[in-house]
Amino acid sequence: MNDRNPKPEGPDSGRPYHHGDLRQAILTAALDVIADAGPAGLSLRDLARRAGVSHAAPAHHFKDRTGLLTAIAAEGFGLLAAALAEASDLKDAGVRYVRFAREQPAHFQVMFTPELLRADDLELATARALAADALRTTVAAVRAEEFGIDSRLAGVAAWSLAHGFATLLLGHNLDGAVGDRDPEEVFRTLANTLFRSI
């Protein structure tokens, strides 16, 4: 190769390899794999190959596959918390929830598959709490007397609608019903029909 196309650095190139942010590179590669093949397609050895590092390198950051999936879920809950924190009301929170699922499908899939995760992980617990707090903030603005049930149940109902819609959407179960329409607008219409009072 000439100087304009130098040999790539990495474990097989014979040249020293310096990775700027291996942890994030592994997370990004893992999200790509999950988006294509689901969590079952994930292997630390394959991710190391994709990142161009030794097969043992990912274990320094995640210990094992469960640790990696737990880190993905924690990152996802943090992103969801940030999205929900910007919501103007409970309906808008639902729209943002659906948008998050569409934009971060691999995160979404892992976040709600608890058997893949390390339940006692502090980072995961903290991120989950942040997302729950963001949802609670929007639910707190709901006046129970207008909704006909207490605000906590209103939150459960809204979350069920948003999560169910997002899950069905990602599984292509709503392709016929949604068609060419914007899924977020379809969700907003559903929310307006079912939750007129909030």
Task: Characterize this entry briefly.
The protein has 198 residues and is mainly alpha-helical.
Structure description:
It is a single chain. With 198 residues, this protein is mostly helical. It has a domain of 132 residues: Tetracycline Repressor, domain 2 (Orthogonal Bundle). The protein has 11 helices and no strands. Helix 1 packs across helix 6, helix 5 packs parallel to helix 9 and helix 7 packs across helix 9. The N and C termini lie far apart (64 Å). The relative contact order is 0.11.
State the main characteristics:
about 200 residues; 11 helices; disordered N terminus; Tetracycline Repressor, domain 2; globular; about 65% helix; mainly alpha
Helix-strand pattern: HHHHHHHHHHH
What is the average of the pLDDT values?
A: 84
* Assembly state of the chains shown: single chain
* Uncertain stretches: 1-18
Per DSSP, what share of the residues sits in E-state strands of 2 or more residues? Answer: under 5%
Overall CATH architecture of the domain at 63-194: Orthogonal Bundle
CATH topology of the domain at 63-194: Tetracycline Repressor, domain 2
Helix content: 55-70%
Strand count: 0
